[in-house]
Amino acid sequence: MNALKEKILKEGSVIGTEIIKVDQFLNHRIDVKFLEEIGEEFHKRFAEERITKILTVEASGIAIAVIAAKYFDYVPVVFAKKAVPSTMTGGSYTAEARSFTKGTVSMFRVSREALSPEDRVLILDDFLASGEAGFALAEIVKAAGAAVCGIGSVIEKEYQGGSRRLREAGYRVESLAVIKGIENGTIVW
Amino acid sequence: MNALKEKILKEGSVIGTEIIKVDQFLNHRIDVKFLEEIGEEFHKRFAEERITKILTVEASGIAIAVIAAKYFDYVPVVFAKKAVPSTMTGGSYTAEARSFTKGTVSMFRVSREALSPEDRVLILDDFLASGEAGFALAEIVKAAGAAVCGIGSVIEKEYQGGSRRLREAGYRVESLAVIKGIENGTIVW
Q1: Minimal CA separation from A115 to chain B, in Å
Q2: Which of A97, B75, B157, B184 is the most buried (most CB within 10 A)?
Q3: What is the pTM of this model?
Q4: What is the ipTM of this complex?
């Protein structure tokens, strides 16, 4: 998606040898008009999958998922929580995931009421790095007896191997911008 | 907002004597079509404020803020973070807030690059309870030299006193559904 690559080059920046900062439009300050282009593109790629639900994880995935939902005929969005809220009373599905940028391990948690075995789920997130979040969300979908119909990321850091591992596990993965590596502070597509 | 009250009664539930559970449409599973009605209503109430930015806090506020942004001519959304991400490199504004439902204290954090002194900011969140989050976000806006033009909540728990305190401090507060109390497990409007 060329508009996205241009946006990353224009408004993003590289930190060290691994991290892409897109705080200006994607995961702190959010450009909602641009997210609509992203949502539309996800729909183009997964239109034939008859998606019934979009699953993401708090916090940065939420904006992407809710804007994308409009293009999927307003299917419900569910976001996995990383803490146990006092309102999650009816039992939950859980799965563990490491966060590369934060250096932490989180327990993803989705209420049992939020997924059903008939669901055809699209998993969306801002970044695809090591694939840990994708695997954890997919595990939750499968625990509910539902189908993982695709995993979409806005920005893939291919050099961290997540997309390869997810594809080897049989998942369909679509990333709107694929970064092959960072060389001398510059992004290599 | 009558449609919201009906939605709370139909899809929400009461836990104990204090907590309203709206996991089915607002802060875990998200009904995006319904959020559009909410966004439109916020715009009706704050249309004349010439808002240039919407500020919220992760995680539940994000969906509300990004959907509302469309009705405010796609102004940028900024969400305060509760942890220090590795990408927040340019300095930040911070303020402390307690969470009633989680029983925790969080440090809200907004990058200095995300707010400017010219901004006319609308603060949005899912719940208004004790007002702690509202005060913390307002403090951040003022630290940036910007103007707090309004504080909007989807559901206000009036009995926790936050709206009174915020209004006494001079802020304009608009809540789309106001809960006066919970009596014998039933919501009193």
Answers
A1: 9
A2: B157
A3: 0.96
A4: 0.95
